[in-house]
Amino acid sequence: MSPVAAAGALAIITSLTAGGLPTAAQAAPAAATADAPITHEENPRVPVGAAWTEAYFPSSDGSDVELHADVLRPANLPADAKTPVILSVGPYFSHAGETAPAGWDRVGPSARFQDLIDGARLMERGYTFVMVDLRGFGGSTGCLDFLGPGEQADIKAAVEWAASQPWSTGKVGMYGKSYDANTGLAANTLKLKPLQAIVSQEPTWNRYNYLYSNGVPRSNATSTPRSYYSIATMRPLADESDHYKANAEYEKTHPECESDNLTNTQNPDPKSSFWRARDFASRAAGSQTPLFVTSGFIEDNTKPEEMQKYLANHQGPERGWIGQWEHVRGNETNAKGQLKMGRAGWFDEVMRFYDEHLRGIEPSVTDPAFSIEDSLGNWRAQPTWPVTNDAYQVRLSPGQYIDNGSNAQVAARSMAAPEAPGWDIEYTPEAGSLTTDQTALLSADAPGSSYWSWSTPASEQVRITGSPEVTLKTRGQGNVWVRLWDVAPDGKATMFNENVAVLDHSGSTSFELKATDWTFEPGHQLGVQIGTIASRGWRPVPSGETITVTDARLVVEVQDPRFDSPTQGDRSPYLDTYVRANTTTLTNVGTPTFPLNVSKQG
Fold first, then answer.
1. Engineering a disulfide at 313: which of 7, 269, 285, 356 sits with its beta carbon 3.0 to 4.6 angstroms away?
2. Residue burial 71-104, b: 16+ Cβ < 10 Å; e: rest
3. Are the C-beta atoms of residues 472 and 395 closer than 8 Å to each other?
4. Kind and range of the H or E run holding 208
5. DSSP 3-state assignment of 557?
6. Helix (H), strand (E) at residue 29
7. Where are the domains of the chain?
């Protein structure tokens, strides 16, 4: 059974003086109970206009796991006034801090989505906001499960609990970014009746892809599981209730939590039962929950791999902001005050989405289904993503390379920072974004490590969209790295897409690259580079063998930019940073062998 102690225990907590300094002058319950909600005036960690309570309830898998929730209700409403619920479920809601102790001097609800509460005026609008700790995190018992069946049972329990409370209308929406965006995508696959809307910012679409690429470990394959265990074992604050403290200590008294987490996640086989349970792109087939997503095509953390598959499998209403940014929120700004996604009105559009699906309020503004920023920084509206005018397969040149990792890989690894114990999915970019110097090492001049194929120059603007797919027939065992380049007439080339794979022993290997939306100007060529993996973003084991590629095909989906329907949005600031870091000059562009056109003819 999960540890349980008296939830009404008392502890000394601080109050603020008029000058804003804490003083231990007031005794209050450590737990914010339904009978004694706590407001901002009593505890400044509670958002203005909210009344905070805590609750505990069982997970839905019949185990002994007990989940902890922080509930923020509009303080001006009666305790039993029914409201729709916005729910976030994840590992980052510990009272002590998101990923490490934050130095709080008193217990209070997580401020992770304070921006949503304030920016969307949730309390003023009459919404309840609920934050639930996944098993093993914060005030919940159990072993962390990396979005597996256990955590999916927690998500189901959280949705159904939020819908069944006397203060709930029974309609629940989910909100999150990164890990707690992934819990939204997982919830959609569970087809839960109370769940009426999901907002998911910068998720992984198939959990396998966060640690592996087609059998090749990513650089964070071991550091991410370790990081989450460190989050799960954070020390609770001194003035937590005995109930919360006992639950928070669960993993420290169950060493199998750490060992199972590390063992299970080190399986590189995407077809294993462990990873099939976390393949949300496949499991989204037939799902209907209205979905609002964001994803950066050039994301430095959660890559947009299998996004197209997930969206195609999902059958419900869809909304999306997708473009050329890093791992950021829709409302986030940089030091200059620029919106990192480049598009204004995030919270307004989110609340129109929630009002429509949780309250039945017809939007007063017609928002595009998808708002998309291409590689030139131009925004357009589309009814779905992708929209293609043609899709065709091209034959690439045969060739050879040595799967030795190359000198470039050694150089890149020497510049890579060691794995830090605090590495986590939410804040630290995955080691893999190349500097200009590193990119130069990986150019066409790298001897023996890769070979190239070239398209004809584009006769007019043409956009490669969707998820390009490559098929290789090879001799020799090892690894392969495929990269796509936008090559200008002067040889200046920008790498805009890539992926890697372990070559199949059968000699035939197929895999998708990342989702993309890259516009080629007239005169530009597509360069396709095939070779050994020379990037610190992955940890391959080079075979040392010569790999002979006897047949190579690339399937591309193309769109004609002439038919774009413009919508508001500015060039996202990260796009220039990405282009600088991934551009080099090629001096040996070869003879074109395949077309780059909106139509495959000509």
1. 285
2. bbbbbeeeeeebbbbbbbbbbbbbbbbbbeeeee
3. no
4. none
5. strand
6. strand 22-29
7. 390-585
The answer to whether 553 and 471 have CB atoms below 8 angstroms apart is yes
CA distances from 210 to 147, 213, 223, 478 (A): 12, 8, 12, 21
Q: What is the pTM of this model?
A: 0.91
Say if residues 251 and 163 touch (Cβ distance below 8 Å): no
Strands (E) located in 50-144: 50-58, 66-74, 83-90, 128-133
Rounded to whole angstroms, the Cα distance separating 438 from 431 reads 13
Rounded distance, CA 556 to CA 595, Å?
Answer: 11
Alpha helices in 301-345 (DSSP H): 307-313
Sole residue written with tokens 């995508």: 185
CA 59 to chain centre: 24
Question: From the centroid of its chain, how far is CA 92?
Answer: 14
Q: Do the bridges between strand 516-520 and strand 583-585 make them parallel or antiparallel, or are there none, so unpaired?
A: unpaired
Tokens found for residue 328: 């950021």
Report how far Cα 323 is from the mean position of its chain's Cα atoms.
14
Angle between helices 223-232 and 256-265 (to 10 degrees): 160
Strands 168-177 and 83-90: parallel
Q: What is the mean pLDDT of the chain?
A: 89
Bridge pairing between strands 83-90 and 128-133: parallel
What CATH topology corresponds to 390-585? Jelly Rolls (2.60.120)
pLDDT in the model for residue 536 = 85
Distance, CA of 464 to CA of 459 (rounded, Å): 14
Query: Cα–Cα distances in Å, from 189 out to 95, 326, 370, 599?
Result: 29, 26, 21, 36
Sign of torsion over alpha carbons 523, 528, 534, 536: positive
Q: Which amino acid is at 19?
A: G
The proportion of the chain whose per-residue pLDDT surpasses 90, expressed as a percent, equals: 85
Which residues have CB under 8 Å from 187's CB, separation 6+? 89, 155, 156, 159, 174, 195, 198, 289
Query: What is the SS3 assignment for 563?
Result: helix
- By DSSP bridging, strand 195-201 and strand 291-296 are parallel
413 burial type by CB count under 10 A (0-12 exposed, 13-18 middle, 19+ buried): middle
Tens of pLDDT along 234-258?
999 999 999 999 999 999 999 999 9
| Tens-digit pLDDT profile for residues 46-76 | 999 999 999 999 999 999 999 999 999 999 9
SS3 per-residue string spanning 434-455 = CCHHHHHHCCCCCCCCEEEEEE
Tell me which residue of 321, 322, 311 sits closest to 289, measured CA to CA.
311
Which pLDDT tens digit goes with each residue over 109-124? 999 999 999 999 999 9
* Amino acid code (one letter) for 279: D
